[in-house]
Amino acid sequence: MSFWQSFSETFRRESPKYQALFLPEYRIDVDNNATPINAGEAYCRLWLVEMRLARDVDWFRERYPVVHAAIRFNHGGKSITIPYLAEPGHLQELSKENLNKVIQCNYPLTPLFPFNDGLVELQAGLFSMVNSDPIGKFIKTMGRFSELLPVPELSTVVKLAEPVYRGIEDLIGAGEGQLELGYQQTFSTGGGGGNNDLKPGYFVAILAEENQITLDTLCVVNDSLKVGSPGKTKVFVRDGKPLDGYSYMLFRIEKRTAQDWESLTQIKELVYQAQDAVFNGEYNKVTTFLLPAMKAAIFRSPDLIKADRRNMVVKIHAHLHEIGLQGVTMQKRSLYSIMQRPLPAMDTEMEAELELLEALFNS
What we know:
Blueprint: H1 3-14, E1 19-22, E2 43-52, E3 63-75, E4 78-86, E5 102-108, E6 113-114, E7 120-130, H2 133-146, H3 161-174, E8 178-187, E9 201-206, E10 218-221, E11 224-227, H4 236-239, E12 241-242, E13 248-256, H5 265-279, H6 283-300, H7 306-326, H8 335-339, H9 348-362
Antiparallel strand pairs: 1-9, 2-5, 2-6, 2-13, 3-4, 3-7, 7-8, 9-13, 10-11, 11-12
Helix pairs in contact: 2-3, 5-6, 5-7, 6-7
């Protein structure tokens, strides 16, 4: 049984009842367009925004809290899982004297990844672990490893994900982990007809019975979950108060229409090499070696949405042609700067080449 399945079994077997809600746009203090995200049109990132522990566990005397999350999505045609573990340093504000306290996390659970196809699945658990020195040291080590994963160019560290995931599995078993609050959700591309569209915004899981929480009073102010006046006005910004007495985890889905271009190190380095070659008059090197390598790197990159692959090739090609015409007086441009330029018109030759590249690399 995989750890993902093992985690799911634990949730089904041990997780107490909780309330879950995706907060409407009008219950958030900042403007938020919650239009569902269609496959191939945007980049996404999941955040653990905030958490709170209620005073219903003997925390820090016999057990202490650990937040574990795992996010599964398609990356480069393969399903990958990114694990996250909140090691003690992330919860250092807590002690047995100041429980029932909000912890502002704003921790990225994933890098900014292209949502090209498939599903995005989230498992998140608040566990209590046996309080012992060996377990504490193990948690700290695994937490540091999990911090290596949400990096901009995910393809460079994706091989680390599986061993980190396995290490967390061993940790929870060794620490006699008890699940205090578990949450699972699967998001799909927009237009599926359900309530689980992948869309930007906040969602929360609260350890509470259905009759304990009035969901339409929940709101988000300054990245913090509050209870305020219901309705579609912004009165809750003034009268919102913390949700006391309940353990919860607040998450956010971020949507971006552009990747962090400077994080694409392989493509960026090829662009710099090509510009240097043009400035040095080495046009044959550009056309024979660097441009084909660059186009292959772009169409192979799992860190780009499909539409950006074509656009990147066209913009870089146009820029290199431009500096070749104008000579060495032009400055070298960053990849970010090149991608900010308007998309130039494509001739039939370029269109045919892009179609050939798509057919080649998609196969």
